[in-house]
Amino acid sequence: MSAPENNRSAADQAAFKRELTEVVPHLRAFARGLCGRPDMADDLVQEALLKAWAAQQRFEPGTSMRAWTFVILRNAYLTDMRRNRFRGEYDETVAERILTAPAGQEEPVHLSDMHRALLTLPAERREALLLVGAGGFSYEEAAEICSCAVGTIKSRVGRARAALTSMLEDGDIPQRSIGDARAHRAILEELDNVAAGMGKSEPTR
Amino acid sequence: MTSKDDKPSIGDDAIGKEPGWASGLRQLYDSVVEEDIPDNFRDLLSKLDSPKDS
Q: In sequence order, what are the residues at sequence separation of 6 or more whose Cβ sits closer than 8 angstroms to the Cβ of residue A118?
């Protein structure tokens, strides 16, 4: 894929590519936390890399490549979810994506208790927790990535934390099955939010 | 880098310390960061050309 027409020097483009390559492991980690399934997470990251490459004119050298690409990744994730929803396949597709392989198949991945618990959270809270609790971003940086107020991020992290504490310390983790009612509810709530445009990061909570 | 006020931590509540599972969350994340990059990523990156603007 050739570079988009732009006025960046070859050296700048090489530098951009180097920095982009360096964030790939982090993008994979964030995507894996968002999606659950490694194959889908990797698809998402590749989509994000292509978009990042195409948009490199908009990247300000010296700023955080990680933060910049995380924005692209999350937008791709939200778009993808919306698209699935509108196709009417969302129940199965998203449940599959979020939880595990379809029933009857050998699970390709053993999801830990932590990971399963994480995946029951609404996307906004899950991403906030991932960014601040694992990705090493400050609340300020996470707010920028998610296009919301710092207070909103803190609220989301707080709620995610409370939910996970309840699940992981009370042992109240949903089963590794798309039949689990509570996980299914969480997925549908998430879809409602995305369809209602809340996935576009209006600070709602 | 980050100021004290927005220190990256999920433990900044009244109790002031992280829940027990917080390190598990980081491990989950870090374990993926530490994975080798799959070949298909290397392939994709290698296809991102520099411009022929020389």
A: A33, A126, A129, A130, A164, B25, B28
